[in-house]
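All the exercises in this workshop are built on plain-text protein records. There is nothing in a record beyond a sequence line and a structure line. A learned vocabulary of local backbone shapes supplies the integers on the structure line. The question running through the whole workshop is how a given chain folds. Here is such a record, shown just as it appears in the course material:

***
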Amino acid sequence: MTVDALTDVAGLRVGHATRTGDGWLTGTTVVLTPPGGATAAVDVRGGGPGTKETDALDPRNLVQKVEAVVLTGGSAYGLDSASGVMAWLEEQGRGVRVGPDPAHVVPVVPAAAVFDLGRGGDFRARPDASTGRAAVEAADASEPGAPVREGCVGAGTGAVVGTVKGGIGTASVVLDSGITVAALVVANAAGSVVQPETGALYGELMQGRTPYPPVEVHEAAQRRLAEANSKNGPPPLHTTLAVVATDADITRAQAQKLAGTAHDGIARAVRPVHLLNDGDTVFALATGARPFTDAHPLALNDILAAGADLVTRAIVRAVRAAGSVDGAGGGWPSYEELYGGRGQQG
């Protein structure tokens, strides 16, 4: 049984730590791998990334596998949440072995941050090591294959996409080969997910769906957004993050290719994308549980195509799952508040 989430890749678990109220609107999300780790790679295309340990994932470098990936709010400050995850992993004896004692490990925890500073009203309310620890403990406590909460949770708590509320979204697919591919996204972009002429979501249009809202609904939504934007002003920085995973036994170089092509999924759902004030970053994880043959030079294509498609679908789900926010740090209507599920086939 699948749950259409990143956790459909057997062994992966997802945990959120969410902080709201009293100036807070932020959080951290941790993807925890099976013990022993997963092959990992990264591709960064935004002009303003906030990242940690991404160089370690270069296929030319030493580290072969990682035990966790951290996605967090708080911009560069929020990267401190990875310290809490490292401490927890060390306690479990999980990490790169560096000495004769099994306890002598160094957990390599790649992390990336979205900009959400001040969106709850307090610029200094941002994730730290305790937030990261809470998120990894939540991941560890979850059941294998458990559904993943979407919307305004974890790293998506303070996310904003263009002028509407963003959040966390996830999706998965089982290919004809039996290989599972899945994605989890934090949608927080400077660009828009909404086609300005119609109010349709770009990502749904790219999936072959044309749920154009009625004209009067779109006009009312535009008035509501104009009102909210006049109060908020444009947030200065953003960033969309994603983890794309598979159970296929692919190499580190192949995983890096998967991370790179997955960015196409962002470009299909957000316009414009990869700007200087975005820090768009995609991690790839491969658990290696299912044999993968690369005897045919194009054998990887199905996984690559699926990764990009799932990132698009996860962004749509993030936006549709998000709830409106109106507080001391600003107000961002949700897409569902503006348009609901109403639409007409074009």
Summary: DSSP finds eight helices and 19 strands in the chain. The mean pLDDT is 93. Helices lie at 75-78, 81-91, 129-141, 202-206, 215-232, 252-269, 301-321, 335-339. The CA atoms of residues 136 and 249 lie 25 Å apart.
